[in-house]
Design goal:
heterodimer, A: 311 residues, B: alpha+beta, Rossmann fold, Dna Ligase, domain 1, 30% helix
Chain lengths: 311, 498
């Protein structure tokens, strides 16, 4: 396996997962806002913060975090490398360069989705058509991934795809937790008025990660902050929890060339997440903790890059 | 009935499918009848199905224009071009003969140069050739083959004679489209493949792979063969990735490879360096190795020429093979066939006037408005003058170009290229000019040479145009070699079935 191809597969996994997560995020936020009373000091800006592109957004749109600006920015804006359009474009460009390593059907599915986003994207800016558009993006990315899983030999190349996919998901899950928890913990308006809405907001966190149903089945308790944090950080069975993603990365080891630095970093980040005392974190230090996890994820990215891609 | 063949105006040229309006050639009768039976909406539907298939399959090519690389869907006409097997077998034999002679010629030029010593080929032509690589002198590649892959362009004149228009011995492209065109046609007209014997084309990647494995400098069961591409921005990138995929070999870029102190070539993998035995290179000579050629090239691999000369790696095609696809050298191919094989060419050359020859030159200059003038080393239809269509300024410009550098130009009569029915936007059918590019794989002897069944048919989509290059508005058709003796002659009775 060429280093360049391995790197491309890794990024392909990341971009596909990013497109899907972004679509879910926008979808859920729209639903959440419908449940909130007018004048609530929180709207579309957190989505930009979650994707870590606050500065970029401001440089393009200034301080106007209006629905139309944010939705355009996240869905279609080619100036935003993390937008759905850009992610799919990047995934497609990568697929073009690794087409020889891929089952043909993957290319056909992704190509199809890419043309759909280009063709129908503008329509998705209006609320009425957005839901269907985003659902199609979600379906499309999952279809690509599923074709990959069933039709591509699960050789070493596939492991890089898995690492990319899971690393991106772990990254996105922690970002969502980070932004949602800070914006929820420090309500600027009157706290007593917001109190009943907390749970709706935590439910929306779960929904952005399609975790609501699984949470209910696993936790068997009403939705609350501690429960949600514990579930999304430490649950061993839910595919979008940070622990699960990291364990999937660890599971690639059997098929991969050895790398001490990847192993060491992975061990460290997994321990950090698994050993965290969530009850305590809720009382203070959550943001700092998530920061640490994020840095760990970034270290893992660096370790993979230096071990396998820059030979 | 969507197509009324009686209205098909094909009298002015040799048409590949029709003898006269309303009268198909025997090998094309099944096809013509079938199309005749389709209703207008059905035909439109088939066309849409083809467009969709091309888009979904991602068959594309890249055009460089206005400073940007644009990935365009492959322009494809759904009406195939039909050639009877009996005619094709003769063409095939002609191509094998021709490419074998070309390989002998290249081997001779880089070694003994007998053809020059014997006065057949002028030494001055070699001295001035821009594709002659002195670095290759004395090299004897495996089986004496320099051009393992050749794409020769065939055209038919008004009387139906097939000519070789040029040979592409450097990095000919288009073969992937030949294979893909067939896949599209199968999706669009599956019925036609049941009622007659259309020879398959998809054997090419396997044949190419065998050809490449056979030149490995190490005797291995599975040599490490790679395809070297300039990258995603190259116009033929689609093909590079396609062929690598079909052969199951790595598609590499220059930066994936390096030459170590042992003069061997290695590729960078996640397990560390891995030795490469054969490189099917799709980048031009001058970009192959910045140490040997263009020092600014970032596409190539430093030291690659050293590795090749020391027989640590095989390159296909060999560097320097392009010396024989120069359009002036082309004029000498019939003489080469005679000289090396003592045979007459099976497929003729288009009559050519070499501007380096004083009498030819004065003829060319006097008849510029009737001739096609080609520079020796351009490809893709660039830098050409089509006399009958040129403005006075263009004629003057070429007159000066020829006078200042006669060696660089040759001229040919304007051929009345053959046509084939082509479906227009509005659903009507009109004749369009076309050519044919078969691909020839050489393995050291005439008998072991492989020729594709048919090849890539390129069509000039613009009415009256003779330029078939996809970079300049050309399209393509599927090419059918039909074993038409198998076809029942009672086609009339089957006609109304659909």
């Amino acid at each position: 396996m060429l280093s360049r191809v391995a790197s491309n597969l890794y990024w392909l996994g990341r971009y596909l997962q990013r497109a899907e997560n972004t679509a879910r995020l926008v979808n859920v936020n729209a639903l959440l806002l419908l449940d909130l009373p007018r004048g609530i000091p929180f709207g579309w800006q957190p989505l930009v913060q979650i994707t870590g592109s606050d500065d970029l957004f401001r440089s393009i749109y200034g301080d106007d975090f209006s629905e139309s600006n944010v939705v355009r920015f996240l869905l279609l804006d080619q100036r935003n490398p993390g937008s759905i359009h850009s992610s799919l474009h990047a995934a497609r460009e990568i697929l073009r360069t690794v087409r020889d390593a891929m089952p043909r059907e993957v290319w056909e599915k992704l190509n199809d989705l890419h043309y759909f986003v280009i063709g129908q994207g503008e329509g998705a800016l209006t609320r009425s058509r957005r839901g269907a558009f985003l659902q199609r993006v979600i379906d499309g990315t999952m279809l690509v991934y599923s074709v990959l899983s069933f039709n591509m030999s699960q050789d070493v190349g596939f492991q890089f795809l898995r690492i990319g996919t899971n690393l991106e998901q772990a990254d996105m899950t922690t970002r969502i937790l980070d932004v949602r928890s800070t914006s929820l913990l420090d309500p600027t308006g009157r706290p007593e008025q917001l109190a009943p809405l907390y749970n709706i907001q935590w439910m929306s966190v779960l929904r952005s990660l399609t975790a609501y149903q699984m949470y209910r089945r696993h936790v068997k308790a009403r939705v609350n902050r501690t429960g949600v944090l514990r579930f999304l950080l430490q649950n061993r069975d839910f595919p979008r929890s940070v622990t699960f993603c990291l364990s999937r990365i660890a599971a690639t080891r059997a098929h991969m060339p050895e790398s001490r630095s990847v192993e060491r970093t992975l061990l460290r980040v997994r321990a950090l997440v698994q050993d965290a005392n969530v009850d305590k974190l809720v009382e203070g230090g959550l943001h700092e903790f998530i920061d640490e996890v994020q840095m760990g994820i970034n270290d893992l990215h660096e370790a993979v890059t230096s071990s396998f891609f820059t030979v | 009935m969507a197509i009324d063949w009686r209205q098909y105006r094909c009298e002015n040229f040799y048409d590949e499918l029709f003898q006269a309006p309303g009268t198909p050639r025997p090998a094309a009768r099944t096809l013509a009848d079938y199309l005749d039976d389709l209703s207008e909406p059905e035909l439109a539907e088939r066309r849409l199905a083809a467009e969709l298939a091309i888009k979904v399959m991602g068959i594309s090519f890249t055009v460089y224009s206005e400073g940007k690389n644009v990935d365009r869907a492959w322009p494809f006409d759904i009406i195939p071009r039909v050639i009877p097997l009996s005619e094709w077998q003769k063409t095939e034999a002609g191509l094998k003969q021709r490419v074998h002679a070309l390989n002998l010629f290249i081997q001779d030029l880089y070694n003994d140069q007998k053809i020059i010593k014997d006065g057949i080929f002028p030494a001055e032509l070699l001295r001035e050739s821009v594709n002659f690589r002195k670095q290759c002198l004395g090299v004897k590649p495996a089986h004496g083959v320099w051009a393992h892959i050749c794409g020769s362009d065939l055209v038919r004149d008004k009387d139906g004679t097939m000519y070789v228009l040029e040979d592409n011995l450097r990095v000919p492209s288009g073969v992937s489209y030949m294979v893909e065109n067939r896949l599209v046609t199968k999706r669009v007209f599956p019925e036609l493949f049941e009622s007659q014997t259309i020879l398959p084309v998809d054997d090419y990647p396997a044949q190419l792979y065998d050809t490449l494995c056979a030149i490995s400098p190490r005797p291995l069961d599975q040599p490490n063969v790679v395809l070297l591409t300039p990258g995603i921005f190259n116009s033929a990138y689609f093909e590079h990735s396609y062929l690598a995929q079909q052969m199951g070999i790595e598609l590499v870029e220059g930066s994936d490879l390096f030459v170590a102190d042992d003069d061997c070539v290695y590729m960078r993998t996640i397990y560390g360096p891995k030795r490469v035995d054969v490189i099917y290179r799709r980048i031009d000579d001058l970009f192959l190795d910045p140490e040997a050629f263009n020092p600014d090239s970032i596409l190539g691999v430093p030291g690659l020429m050293r590795a090749w000369i020391n027989n640590r790696v095989a390159l296909a095609n060999c560097p320097g093979a392009g010396v024989a696809d120069d359009k002036v050298v082309y004029a000498f191919v019939p003489k080469m066939i005679k000289y090396y094989l003592d045979q007459d060419p099976i497929i003729p050359n288009v009559p050519s006037y070499l501007c380096m020859d004083p009498s030819d030159r004065s003829y060319v200059l006097a008849n510029l408005d009737k001739l096609v003038v080609k520079p020796a080393n351009e490809s893709g239809g660039y830098g050409m003058l089509i006399g009958p269509r040129a403005s006075k300024d263009e004629l003057d410009k070429f007159r000066k170009l020829i006078e200042s550098n006669p060696r660089n130009y040759m001229a040919q009569p304007t051929l009345a290229l053959s046509t084939a029915p082509t479906l227009m936007e509005d659903g009507s059918v009109e004749p369009r000019h076309l050519d044919l590019r078969p691909f020839i794989l050489s393995r050291g002897s005439v008998d072991s040479t492989y020729v594709t069944t048919g090849g890539l048919t390129r069509v000039a989509m613009v009415r009256g145009s003779l330029v078939v290059n996809s970079s300049q508005g050309g399209g393509a058709k599927d090419t059918w070699i039909v074993d038409f003796d198998d076809v029942p002659t009672q086609t009339q009775s089957q006609g109304g079935a659909a």
